[in-house]
Design goal:
Blueprint: E1 8-14, H1 26-29, H2 34-48, E2 50-56, H3 60-72, E3 77-80, H4 89-96, E4 102-106, E5 128-131, H5 136-148
Parallel strand pairs: 1-2, 1-3, 3-4, 4-5
Helix pairs in contact: 2-5, 3-4
Bound molecules: 1,3,4-trihydroxy-5-OXO-cyclohexanecarboxylic acid.
Length: about 150
């Protein structure tokens, strides 16, 4: 699906607590606010010819609904599932319905953090995972989509 400007539409979906970037544990997640991050994703998308729409929710059911929307419209997804990564089978089942590439991303490197973060229930149904590069994780995922989502 393309938007009116002709760019390939991409949803960048973010799970709980990511709306608090900037004030949330800046030593782990950096100083950028969620608004900064969203603007950066849109700018990167425009450079790559993608029409990027960034959303964030703390609500599992809303996130599942957005993944259904992406599946129904064959829209590629960049997904930071946040804490849902580690335990939400509902989110995993929604990701498994994808009809276009879906890249799991993390700002931090969960593998280098607490034990409970070492499990991702989403990873096996994602196209691939990018983690540990700060805001660049989003940029790298958008770039990867340009070759995946033809
Ligand atoms: C995160 C890592 C998760 O473990 C954590 O629960 C988050 C953010 C990241 O982007 O590094 O909320 O997904």
């Amino acid at each position: 699906m393309t938007d009116l400007a002709g760019g390939r539409r991409v949803l960048v979906l973010n799970g709980p607590n990511l709306g608090r970037l900037g004030s949330r544990e800046p030593d782990v997640y950096g100083a950028m606010t969620f608004a900064d991050l969203a603007a950066d994703c849109e700018k990167t998308g425009a450079e790559l010819g993608l029409a990027v729409e960034v959303r964030q929710t703390d609500d599992e059911s809303e996130l599942v609904g957005w993944l259904h929307e992406a599946a129904d419209t064959k829209t590629p997804v960049v997904l930071n599932p946040a804490a849902f990564t580690h335990y939400s089978y509902a989110l995993r089942d929604a990701c498994a319905q994808r009809t276009a590439p879906l890249i799991e991303i993390h700002i931090s490197n969960p593998a280098a953090r607490e034990e409970f973060r070492h499990t991702s229930v989403v990873a096996a149904v994602a196209t691939g995972t990018i983690a540990g590069f700060g805001a660049d994780s989003y940029r790298l995922a958008l770039r990867a989509l340009t070759t995946l989502a033809q």
